[in-house]
Amino acid sequence: MENLNPLPCQCPxxxxxxxxxxxxxxxxxxxCLRCGACELVEAIVDEPRPHDVxxxxxxxxxxxxxxxxxxxxxxxxxxxxxxxxxxxxxxRFETEADLAAARPPQSATFRETLLALGVPPxxxxxxxxxxxxxxxxxxxxxxxxxxxxxxxxxxxxxxWNGPNELAADILAQRPDLESYAAAYVSNFSDQxxxxxxxxxxxxxxxDIQVMVAIRARLSELTDDKTGELSELTRTLATLGPxxxxxxxxxxxxxxxxxxxxxxxxxxxxxxxxxxx
Length: 276
Hints:
alpha+beta, 6-stranded antiparallel beta sheet, 12 helices, 43% helix, elongated
């Protein structure tokens, strides 16, 4: 029989918080906001029928002393609170009323909140398990700053399971995003064009140089075999009415793929219908 209590304490589960962030699958680093117990656990579930997920118990994943000390030093949040309200690693509450009334300071960005509440000062230990890979990425994301090269920031912002939000916080402070977006969206490199589309959609960039670059790139695409035409269509859709200057190129692209690519044509026509 698996353990039905994820933490080695008798405190009510209303005190159980998730440390730092959710993890892939059914794994969580859980901490008790009453007694301080903390464990890396994997929920064991069964689904005998569709949409009938049943919890069978928890497996505890062992942590070395170094990994435990480092991982449990991060802020934590209650799963049932939206938006997330983070507590420091040292926060403790004797009663549920105390916990419900608590309002720890939250900053405008994820980065500022973490730094205000406290994070591990040292590099992730070598013994940190793969299940906590995301914690390692977030720690490295906190080392990004205004001096970090923009390509490094863009890699961190777009990489799967990377410190996406932390990198975006730094990018948002740059005054030159429009110039980079315009240069990247028409660059010879597929990766750089991906970065350009990310900047445009993430930060809603639509000044003249950005729109000139997008329109030029749309004119160069004769089909959607690489998926780039669809990606540009989705990027422009995030701009709303600000995408209107690209209407002639969108109409021309729709005409080019009308008889060869049903889905690309459909996406283009849907976007055009919103720009009328």
